[in-house]
Write a structure and sequence with these properties.
Blueprint: H1 3-13, H2 18-25, H3 29-36, H4 44-54, H5 58-70
């Protein structure tokens, strides 16, 4: 699963940078960076807040992550 890549794609599609997202979620920019680089696993509460803020279902995040695992976007690596 490519959860970090899915989160990057969704965030950038919504035209948010890491700083603005971190502020909106009340977390540090480094936390966002670590989750997106898959160095830290996000909690379910974090994913729910992320999804609510960006107006996407949590299930869509997981579906995109699974699809990216099968069909990677090499420019995100």
């Amino acid at each position: 699963m490519k959860l970090g890549q899915a989160l990057i794609l969704i965030r950038t599609a919504k035209e948010l940078n890491q700083e603005d997202l971190a502020a909106a979620l009340s977390v540090s920019k480094s936390h966002i960076c670590e989750v997106e680089k898959e160095k830290k696993n996000p909690s379910l509460d974090f994913l729910k807040s992320y999804a609510d803020l960006l107006k996407v279902p949590v299930s869509s995040i997981f579906r995109l992550a699974e699809r990216l695992a099968v069909e990677p976007l090499f420019f995100l690596d």
